[in-house]
Amino acid sequence: MKLTALKAARAIALALPIAATLFASATHAGEAEIRKNLKARLADMPPIMAVAKTPVPGIFEVVLEGNHVVYSDSNGDHFFEGTLINTKTKANLTQEKADKLNVIKFSDLDLKDSFTVVKGTGAQKFALFTDPNCGFCKRFEGDLMKLDNVTIHVFLYPILGQDSITKSNNIWCAKDKAKSYYDWMHNGTVPPAATCDTAAVERNVAFGKKYAISGTPTTFFVDGSRLPGAYPLEELKKRLVAAK
At which of 102, 119, 150 does a domain end? Predict the structure, then answer.
């Protein structure tokens, strides 16, 4: 009996690496099949950046260009968009993935393409992508005025049309960029016409497209996390503390 048990144990030990190899091969085959079929059948779909298994058997996570997350079966015959939630933990797996995809290194931000506002000690730092014609940005600015001891790197990000580009360029070319920006955002004083090298504004737009900044305001914290939208002041304060 002991000899039989020993043989069985050895057989299992030999089989495990083979099974792992077969499982890995099946996973890769699933990824290749998904890429092939989705690309062939859905011509309008953005390029596929990554494919990975989810905790749900037979369901794969597909990351499209722009960090958009969709899902597919194991061979790309069916796919769907939506939110994947773990009902045991209540975890939003789709949002968790999106948060990971949206993280950037704060050091990747080219601060020379922004202007800086320091309040108090300036101890807490964050970056703000803003469009001068964005109503939510103006509302958000009202809350930002209540913050103290912060350093704000303001990146002009005109994505709402030609007038936004014109205002952003005039603000960037102003002698006092911050004053010109705040005069417009808080008082409605149109930035005076000015000319200079506005390549920084163009680089901001290119950066936003690369990192899927789809709206304004968008805030980046020193830990690389982002906060899209005009969230309440208390949420911003929490995120500033958490980022430290």
Answer: 102
Looking up tokens 């948060």, which residue turns up? 99
Q: Please give the angle made by the CA atoms of 234, 215 and 96, to the nearest 5 degrees.
A: 65
Query: Do 63 and 23 fall into the same domain?
Result: yes
Q: Which residue type is seen at 55?
A: P
Indicate whether 176 and 238 sit together in one domain. yes
pTM of the model: 0.71
Q: Comparing C-alpha atoms, which of 132, 88, 102 is closest to residue 223? A: 102
pLDDT digits (tens, 9 = 90+) for 66-119: 888 999 999 999 999 999 999 999 999 998 888 888 788 899 999 999 999 999
Same domain, residue pair 167 and 208: yes
Which CATH number belongs to the domain containing residue 53 in this structure?
A: 3.10.450.70
Count up the domains in the chain and report the number. 2
Residue ranges making up the domain that contains 160? 106-243
The sheet with strand 124-130 has its strands ordered as 115-119, 150-156, 124-130, 218-221, 226-228
Cα distance between residue 206 and residue 3, in whole Å:
69
Q: Which residue has the tokens 């996570």?
A: 61
Rounded distance between C-alpha atoms, residue 187 and residue 111, angstroms:
26
Coil, helix or strand at residue 30:
helix
